[in-house]
Design goal:
six-stranded antiparallel beta sheet; 627 residues; Rossmann fold
Length: 627
């Protein structure tokens, strides 16, 4: 796990050094450079040493010297690929480097090599003979990659922070991206916070002519629901056994490291499943687990993580997050955040990663399971929402929504009034927008007020509409699954975990995103993933021999923090500073603050997005540096 940066065209070696230094937390163990000033080639690398510590130095050349790569990530099946390549006559000079495996795989198969990879990655591979570059990102976009072509410079990096160091590049805030930020709570790929700067989407690669800087982007993989055509009579048992087998194999692959390793343990189904199955591979006393608790009871799950740790006899570490700790962390976290993202669970995720890094260098987490197995509350709302939408006249809906808005505000985690208000807000729009509006910090009408201009819904939510309409299934649950996998997972959940972990120089691996497991799950009909209001149905049934009933069938809490309460009592500062800086409607922001503090409305999501924009200003003198 590392940080990469580089450019082709105008610039100097000193520029490259500034770029890599600016993301040193992604790779504190070493840096490396490959430069060809006469050809305008500059490739940089920051290394967090995980595998083949002695031999995996980057940027890495193949043994002929023709190819060079700078790579961020881990290829979990690289040993199998290496064996296949050796049988084809390829020569390796390192003992166990997955980076060298990528080099040789490209020489053997070109772009088709991507389909053989089981892992997380973002890399740039340069061919010095043809003067071309092959730039690629993993299926789910777990590892980040930004790029821009401006004038005589093409640059790329793991974070926007690095691109800001290049003197030839302009970084002007994109107003269109800012609207999407307040629509989704994150900025979906390929957009970034800045004009002419893009994210290479997950499952895509780029071909770059390094002489002319012309480039083309190609999609090499996309998540798609494709149910099995033949359902066995005992499908629940057969598919459940396959789930356990594939998940166990995914965990085993991700437990390979030349450094200490541990597991995140929230006490929820997903992380508990990882620990339970890992204990079938090694003794529980050799498993390190880490969890976060909260002083506010409605957000605290630590009793369940303790239960699992005790059941499997793990070495367990628990940290508690309170307001004072969070306020102390805000300037550090937001000061390093290269692009605003409005998921407040970034706070506890950062603290969890910080505590975990004190003990290990690699951690396994449960990311991906909620998206694949219909685990979020909006999946439960789909059936009632579809019925409501078919029978409720628009005028009556408007009346119902206005009445529900008068319900008393509660700042408890996932309170009833919060769920009702969010659900009805989404139902004011077409089904393709439901999930985005339910999850987003502002409704479209509020975005118009914030920006003092009309918005076109199809443009604002173009990614959500494409995910919904692009699904081959007629099932609303399948369509929602594709939304959450293609958008929410890639541009919220994985970004949050990547930034929180890399700020602490910790590598986090996600067994549920193992491609062999994903290819099985996406073919399981939705009636087995969600049944009679029960999310993760087949996963829970498969895990019954491994986990206690109170873990499998307790209500989902989510990894939330009580920011609503912190804002209402004035401990978390709120202001209109960011609104003024970005030419937004200060009166609208002020009204949102007043409504929240007087408990007339729960505006926590929007106000947190503003806090992120301001960089925690008010807690100390630091400000959000990337906008």
């Amino acid at each position: 796990m590392c940080g990469i940066a580089g450019f082709f065209g105008r610039g100097e070696a000193a520029t490259l050094k500034r770029m890599t230094d600016s993301i040193a937390w992604r790779g504190p163990d070493a840096d490396g450079f490959h430069t060809e000033p006469n050809h305008g080639v500059y490739l940089g690398h920051r290394r967090l040493s995980i595998l083949d510590i002695a031999g995996g130095v980057q940027p890495m050349h193949d043994h002929t010297g023709r190819y060079v790569i700078t790579f961020n990530g881990e290829i979990f099946n690289h040993r199998e690929i290496r064996t296949e390549l050796e049988h084809r006559g390829h020569r390796f000079t390192t003992a166990d480097s997955d980076t060298e495996t990528l080099l040789e795989a490209y020489k053997a198969w070109g772009a088709d090599m991507l389909h053989k990879l089981n892992g997380m990655f973002a890399f740039c591979l340069y061919d010095s003979e043809r003067r071309t570059a092959f730039i690629a990102r993993d299926r789910f976009g777990k590892k980040p990659l930004f790029y821009t072509h401006q004038g005589e410079t093409f640059a790329f990096a793991s974070e926007l922070t690095a691109l800001r160091q290049h003197e030839q590049l302009r970084m002007d805030t994109s107003r269109a991206a800012l609207k999407k930020y307040f629509a989704y709570g994150y900025i979906p790929a390929p957009s970034s916070m800045f004009e002419r700067v893009y994210k290479l989407p997950g499952g895509h690669f780029m071909l770059l002519d390094c002489a002319t800087l012309s480039h083309t982007v190609h999609q090499w993989w996309s998540f798609a629901i494709e149910p099995y055509e033949n359902i066995p009579a005992n499908a629940e048992e057969v598919w459940g056994e396959q789930l356990i087998e594939l998940l166990t194999a995914a965990i085993k692959r991700r437990m390979i490291a030349d450094v200490p390793l541990g597991f995140f343990l929230s006490g929820g189904i997903d992380s508990s499943a990882l620990v339970a199955l890992a204990s079938t591979l090694i003794d529980g006393s050799k498993i390190n687990t880490f969890s976060i608790g909260f002083t506010e009871a409605s957000f605290d799950e630590s009793a369940y993580s303790t239960l699992i740790a005790e059941k499997f006899g793990t070495n367990h570490t628990r940290q508690v997050l309170d307001l004072d700790t969070a306020l102390d962390l805000l300037p550090t976290i937001l000061g390093r955040l290269d692009e605003p993202m409005g998921d407040s669970s970034l706070l506890p995720t950062y603290l969890l990663c910080r505590e975990t890094r004190k003990h290990v260098t690699v951690a396994l987490g449960g990311d991906g399971a909620d998206e694949l197995f219909c685990g979020y509350d909006p999946f439960k709302a789909m059936g009632p929402a579809r019925l409501y939408n078919s029978v409720m006249p628009r005028a009556v809906h408007t009346l119902v929504e206005s009445l529900v808005r008068r319900l008393p505000v509660s700042h408890r985690n996932m309170s009833l009034d919060f769920k009702l208000k969010r659900t009805l807000r989404g139902l004011g729009y077409q089904p393709s927008l439901w999930n985005a509006v339910w999850m987003g910090p502002l409704a479209p009408s509020d975005i118009e007020d914030l920006f003092n201009e009309p918005v076109a819904l199809d443009d604002l939510y173009s990614e959500a509409v494409a995910a919904w309409q692009g699904c081959a299934s007629d099932s609303y649950l399948d369509r929602a699954t594709e939304f959450y996998v293609k958008l929410y997972l890639q541009d919220d959940i994985l970004v949050k975990v990547d930034r929180a972990s890399m700020m602490n120089s910790l590598e986090v691996r996600a067994p549920f995103l193992d491609i062999d497991l994903v290819n099985h799950v996406r073919r399981i009909p939705v009636s087995f993933r969600f049944r009679k209001g029960q999310s993760k149905y087949i996963l829970k049934k498969a895990l019954e021999p491994y986990l206690p009933h109170e873990i499998l069938y307790r209500p989902k809490k989510g990894f939330g923090v009580p920011i609503g309460k912190w804002m209402s009592n004035g401990r978390l500062p709120l202001s209109t500073t960011a609104a003024a800086a970005h030419n937004l409607n200060k009166r609208f922001v002020s009204a949102q603050i007043d409504q929240h503090r007087t408990l007339k409305a729960d505006n926590r999501a929007f106000l947190w997005n503003m806090v992120v924009m301001e960089g925690g200003k008010g807690t100390n003198e630091k400000t959000y540096h990337a906008v």
